[in-house]
Amino acid sequence: MTLVRRSSEHGITTLTLDSPHNRNALSARLIAELLEGLAGAAEDAGTRAVLLTHAGNTFCSGADLKEGGVDPSQLVRLMRTVVELPKPVVARVDGHVRAGGLGLLGACDISVAGEASSFAFTEARLGLAPAVISLPLLPRLDARAAARYYLTGERFGAAEAVRIGLVTAGEEDLGPILDGLRRGSPQGLAESKALVTADVRRAFERDADGLVALSARLFASAEAREGMTAFLERREPEWVR
């Protein structure tokens, strides 16, 4: 069973996360298939841009907790591949995005969200922190909003996601965005993308190793084990009063 479907039409390669049984969680297999799809799009001379979307009501729920979480270095590799791909990557979201899924969303160059979309940084509620996903997110997010949502884990919708810089626009703008990308030259798109991702790429160079170590330490902690167990058992963790 394929977890990432690929199709191409009029210069746009679409990669669809198709693992709705686990809410498109970032399993090792899904990451491997997504990396393969991105590599194929990069090598395809006819592809001007990549559209990343999803099946089911969840874009991506983050790490697959039933696998014990995802190797943080693999998530860094995936996000960095998106950021450094020589072709623009556009995310189309019309569902829920949580935890590591927000890092994948943040790595994309442009993103649109429909009315059914919802977002939440849930890591602090699990005994974790938004460690490696901060690499593409903090250079792009409003700082005060990042502090609020990182710390509280509150859920918010598409309009707020646009306001704080997590999402580019509403879903109604997808057509004009893709049409504009189709009109770009390969060289023009690649060099323009390099300009607008400069701060994000510097964050990867500077902070990736330290955040991978932080993520690994947190996932191995007793507090995180309790948080993840409570989540899977659908109960409150022991620290909630």
Describe it for me?
The structure is a single chain. With about 240 residues, the chain is an alpha/beta fold. The chain has a domain at about 5-170: Alpha-Beta Complex (2-enoyl-CoA Hydratase, Chain A, domain 1). It contains 10 helices and 10 strands. Strand 2, helix 1 (about 30-45) and strand 3 form a beta-alpha-beta unit. Helix 1 packs parallel to helix 2 (about 70-85). The protein is globular, with a radius of gyration of 17 Å. The protein starts with a strand and ends in a 9-residue tail after the last helix. It holds the Pfam family ECH_1. This is Enoyl-CoA hydratase.
Give, in spatial order, the strands making up the sheet with the most strands: 1-2-3-5-7-10
Mean pLDDT across the residues is 96
CATH superfamily of the domain at 4-171: 2-enoyl-CoA Hydratase, Chain A, domain 1
Spans where pLDDT lies below 50 across 5 or more residues: none
The number of helical elements comes to 10
Amount of beta strand: 15-25%
Measured as a percent range, the helix fraction is 40-55%
Distance between the ends: 43 Å
CATH topology of the domain at 4-171: 2-enoyl-CoA Hydratase, Chain A, domain 1
Briefly note the structural class of the backbone.
alpha/beta
